[in-house]
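Box 3.1 — From sequence to structure: Ribosomal RNA large subunit methyltransferase H
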Amino acid sequence: MKITVIAVGKIKEKFYTEALSEYSKRLSKYIKLDVIEVADEKTPDQASEREVAQILEKEAQRILAKLPSGAYVIPLAIEGKMLSSEGLSEKLAELGLQGDSHVAFIIGGSLGLADSVLEKADFKLSFSKMTFPHQLMRVILLEQVYRAMRIMRNEPYHK
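Predicted structure (token representation):
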């Protein structure tokens, strides 16, 4: 299975880069992982709705330009479906059995994702009704994909 993560913004904090590096290394045993960062737009203080929409659309154009052809698209969105770790494992296993061997997860920036990105979704995934920093969300996603791979193979993983 190949997993592509398309994420808005760069990771600057060392503790995030170290965690991402560790999970990327762990995942290399199970999948081919490709992480693509696209530039985020600066959001002015007190941005108007119009400015927010323009920023989201600029980021969306960058995301959509990097979306792999034929991939099963899963944007992370608050309004998406929440799954347990076992549920995510089942979902990824099911996709593999259906022949969807390339999955693209999309993580938006601080403003979220434009409708034009969400419309490309084959499945919308929510980790919580809470909002998380997009840098931390990248770590959480990789950890959960790693956990899903371990569950899929009946390998032990701390609970």
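Summary of the box: The two ends are 24 Å apart (CA to CA).
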